[in-house]
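Can anyone check this?
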Amino acid sequence: MKKPAKFNFAPLFNLVKSLSMSERIYFKKFTSANTSKDDKESVMLFNALEGMNVFDQQKIKAVFIEENLVAKINLTGFYLNYQLMGILRSYHSTISIGAELKDSLRDMELLYNKGHYVQCKKLLEKAKKKASHYERLDRVIELLEWERKLVSKDIGIEHQEKFMRKIFDELGEVLEKKLNRYQFEHCFTIKYSMIKRYNIFRSESDYKRWKKLTDTSIFLKGGKPLTPTAEIYHHFINSMDYFVKGNMHKVFSIVQNRFEALEKMPDIIKDSPHQYITVLSNIASLRASLSIIGTTNYKENKKIFFNTLNIIKKIDANTTELETRIFANISIHEIGFHINTGDFIIASNLSEHWEKEMIKRNIKLGKCSELSFLYYSSYAHFASGKHFLAHQSINQLLKSNYSETRIDMQCYAMILNLMLLFDIGNIKDMKTALVDTEKFIIKKDRLYRIEKTIIELFKALIKKKVDANAIKKTFIKVKEKLMLSKKEKYAANFDEFDHFLWWVEGKIGGKTMTELAKACLQTK
């Protein structure tokens, strides 16, 4: 008997760990309905891989040795890989319109090749109706190609030109919609990428840069959205111009328009919930911002915030990518909300909870989400007095390479590190960190008036490490400078300014950071 080739288990481990909860349940239901020997061995291997936090070839081998099946280890690996791919195809064909339409195209090709043109035409019409309804423009184009091929098979010669003209006109309309959608998506990407780098701008020069680098008039040329997706992008584009100015109330009204537009498309939401998650995330983010918290009734705002998170939680995460997005949005916004309402201990406890969940569910956040999670976790731990946990989170953040992602937050994290080092009395490391922080802020062109004042503060604190009275006077002067800087247009359009100010005011005395944060709440 020929010996089976050696199987590489590492990619299979990654595949198993990437499965969403729904996919894992589907696999187990499928295999439990089959009782073949190969299925039992593949389930045994699946369970071994699923139970690992990190890949370990020896653990796999040990499982097979224990069952006296070591000779079948490679064969079982190949079988499980083949089985998983088949089950995933089956699972997604039942929940994905894209997969369903692909199956229809394959069936049409089989029917056409067998000469069953009438059945092929019926299947085409059904698939085309579905593709148009779900705005699957690529599939509509493919189906129009099949419609063209069928003209010579079921249309009389005297009518063929008329039908070809109809197909040609329809193709032109679809291509126009496709180009229109791409134009709006392109304009969205131009603005969104700038926000993901710099977030809210802080000065008039920032505003001029934004206008110059995000001018989309040449692409849109006054055009209107021709599809529901293009309309969503249109609302998104409009909201960004207000977001970067810090005008959150105007952003909120436009986000509501996006939300209402999506609510009218339940089938599209079910098929592809990404845009729905995004708009709900935007609502949660706005509800958690100090701009909204400080100007709306606290209880009402809190109720709407958590209702929004509950809607996100109920979305069916049928892929790992969706599961990760849902997890990131819920965890980050929940921690951020409790920070901005002064509930630092709750925020800190939530951070610990979500971190354990991340490990348990093998969730790997994207760079931007990871940066936000670590920053908010660090601040929550810091503000609640859990300095060891704050040190862990901030160190993990500072050691990671986030490149150009949220440069503003990277700067705030470095400043938070200085605050932490001062509070724990580590002046030696604070000196080194201060040099690194100033260099980074200057290099990234973020040395605004507020940042200059902050750098000056820590330079003064290094010199006045013994005299408590001198330190208090330094904090008083810094607060005065910060309040003057706040009056400049766009200067303090970011929540992290208040986060820093709470710390400064806490050092002056009279109120705790929690009391200062809660003073912002509108309780009447």
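Reply from J.R.: I decoded it. The longest helix spans residues 160-198.
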